[in-house]
Design a protein that fits this description.
This protein has about 190 residues and is an alpha/beta fold. The chain has one domain: TIM Barrel, CATH 3.20.20. Helices cover about 45% and strands about 15% of the residues. It is built from seven helices and seven strands. A hairpin with a 7-residue loop joins β5 and β6. α5 packs parallel to α6.
């Protein structure tokens, strides 16, 4: 299993975590910060931070997710194009919509190509937090991934507007790896 860091975790970085909750303002600032001759240095700095936090892969952020509320809505979009197009399971996004991320994992099993492990502080909101500190059943999602035989990428996602999320992402990685190891041990 690879454990990836979603670069959207740094959504607030370009604005110095000024607690600007306007997604597009953060998006535009990120584009401006990385566009042009400074790209190499900025990208290298970001990769160094992610590597130091213990991650072995990244998922590059290019756009915000479409606002799908259920696994079936996602399936309806990707099924006509399968197997060429698959789905990501963004656990925090499903929780934001009040949808059970464990249920979504099972429902998306035939289309799942990527997982964003993300926790949020309350259903209906989108304030992210370290895995295990919010309302998403992260152990249940890991158990579901094990049950369906998922072996693809898992990205740790924590999109902070007001602070650098690297330490919380490292803690989330530690918790996720420990939970996965526990499931691996139980399977033997």
């Amino acid at each position: 299993m690879q454990w990836a860091f979603m670069t959207a975790n740094y959504v607030g970085r370009a604005l110095c975590y000024a607690n600007n909750t306007d997604w597009m303002a953060n998006h535009r600032a990120t584009v401006e910060a990385f566009h042009g001759p400074q790209f190499g240095a900025r990208f290298a700095e970001m990769i160094d931070d992610i590597t130091a936090a213990g991650f072995d892969a990244i998922e590059l952020w290019v756009a915000h997710l479409d606002p799908h509320k259920t696994a079936q809505e996602v399936i309806d979009i990707v099924a006509p194009f399968a197997p060429w197009v698959g789905s990501a399971n963004d656990t925090g996004w499903f929780a934001t919509q009040g949808y059970d991320a464990v249920r979504a994992t099972y429902e998306l099993r035939d289309y799942l190509v990527h997982v964003h492990l993300k926790d949020i502080t309350a259903a209906g909101g989108h304030e992210t937090c370290a895995l295990g500190d919010g309302v998403v059943d992260i152990p249940g999602v890991l158990k579901a991934l094990k049950a369906i035989g998922y072996t693809g990428a898992v990205t740790i996602e924590h999109e902070s507007y007001d602070h650098d999320p690297t330490a919380a992402c490292a803690l989330s990685l530690k918790r996720a790896v420990a939970g996965w190891a526990e499931l691996e041990g139980a399977a033997e």
